[in-house]
Amino acid sequence: MISQFFILSSKGDPLIYKDFRGDSGGRDVAELFYRKLTGLPGDESPVVMHHDDRHFIHIRHSGLYLVATTSENVSPFSLLELLSRLATLLGDYCGSLNEETISRNVALVYELLDEVLDYGYVQTTSTEILRNFIQTEAVVSKPFSLFDLSSVGLFGAETQQNKVAPSSAASRPVLSSRSDQTQKNEVFLDVVERLSVLIASNGSLLKVDVQGEIRLKSFLPSGSEMRIGLTEEFCVGKSELRGYGPGIRVDEVSFHSSVNLDEFESHRILRLQPPQGELTVMRYQLSDDLSSPLPFRLFPSVQWDRGSGRLQIYLKLRCDLPPKSQALNIRLHLPLPRGVVSLSQELSSPDQKAELGEGALHWDLPRVQGGSQLSGLFQMDVPGLQGPPNHGPSASAAPLGLGPASLSFELPRHTCSGLQVRFLRVSFSPSGNANPHKWVRHLSHSDAYVIRI
Amino acid sequence: MPYLGSEDAVKELKKALCNPHIQADRLRYRNVIQRVIRMSKLDQWGQAEVLNFLLRYQPRSEEELFDILNLLDSYLKSSSTGVVMGATKLFLILAKKFPHVQIDVLVRIKGPLLAACSSDSRELSFAALCQVRQILHSLPGHFSNHYKKFFCSYSEPHYIKLQKVEVLCELVNDENVQQVLEELRGYCTDVSADFAQAAIFAIGSIAKTYTDQCVQILTELLGLRQEHITTVVVQTFRDLVWLCPQCTEAVCQALPGCEENIQDSEGKQALIWLLGVHGEKIPNAPYVLEDFVENVKSETFPAVKMELLTALMRLFLSRPAECQDMLGRLLYYCIEEEKDMAVRDRGLFYYRLLLVGIDEVKQILCSPKSDPSLRLLEDQAERPVNSWALDFNTLAPVYGKAHWAVISKCQKAERHDSELPTNASFAISGHLVPEENKKVQEPPESEALMLVPNLQLSAEYFEKTWLSLKVAHQQVFPWQGEVQPDTLQMALKVVNIQTIAMSRPGAQPWKAYLSAQDDTGCQFLTELLLEPENSEMQISVKQSEARTETLPGFISVLETVIGTIGDIKS
Question: What is the ipTM of this complex?
Answer without folding.
Answer: 0.79
